[in-house]
Amino acid sequence: MSTSANPNPDRWVGLVISETVRADRLEDYQAWSLGICEAANQAPGFRARQVIEPRDASLLEYLIVLKFDTVQNMDRRHQSDEYHRWLMQSEGLFEARSQHQHGEGMELWYVRPDEPVNAPPFWKQVVLGSCAVYPSIILLRWITTPLLGPLNLHPDLNLLISVVLLSILLTWPIMPGLSRLLRPWLYGR
């Protein structure tokens, strides 16, 4: 099977899946999840996966982001017999499984309305992203400088720590919160 060429390797499409796991099946879920993710690694056009583990032990909700180079390769993977066999093996593991949301690039940072709509215009994504990133960088510098300064770490290591913290904050709660707050502007006509 050939992989569709992606004219821009920095762009990707993704699938966000929310899975609320039954507490009594957590070990089974973890083994199944590892297997299905390893199988996805072999799919044509597969770029990466990100698993966000539950924040609260009382609600075992996992968020999985699967990234592919093209919509066609993503759809091919999710329509394959192998994928459907993996889904059949997951019977009884979940209390709930979300509808899949397709996204492209930064679009996955945005909380979308329940009804299907197109992505916000690119310029609105840039404005919202800038409004989220700039104050976050200032705040992180204000917090991390006194904490990391006495450790005399290499400047590149300080930067890496800040980037990791910024990525965490932007992915949750800043971008989802801002996109909810500004939903009428983001998705308005």
Report on the structure:
- It is globular, with a radius of gyration of 19 Å.
- Helix 4 crosses helix 5.
- It has 2 domains: 97 residues, Alpha-Beta Plaits; 66 residues, no CATH class.
- It has 189 residues and is an alpha+beta fold.
- Strands 1, 2, 3, 4 and 5 form a 5-stranded antiparallel β-sheet that branches.
- It contains 6 helices and 5 strands.
- Strand 2 and strand 3 form a beta hairpin.
- The relative contact order is 0.14.
- The N terminus is likely disordered.
Q: How would you sum up this structure in a few lines?
A:
The chain is α+β, with helices and mostly antiparallel strands.
Features:
189 residues, 6 helices, 2 domains, single chain, alpha+beta
Number of helices in the DSSP assignment: 6
Give the class from helix and strand content and strand pairing. Answer: alpha+beta
Using only C-alpha atoms, the radius of gyration works out to 19 Å
CATH class of the largest domain: Alpha Beta
Parts with pLDDT < 50 across at least 5 consecutive residues: 1-7, 113-117
Topology:
Elements: E1 13-21, H1 26-41, E2 46-52, E3 61-68, H2 71-78, H3 81-89, E4 94-97, E5 101-104, H4 122-148, H5 155-181, H6 183-187
Antiparallel strand pairs: 1-3, 1-4, 1-5, 2-3
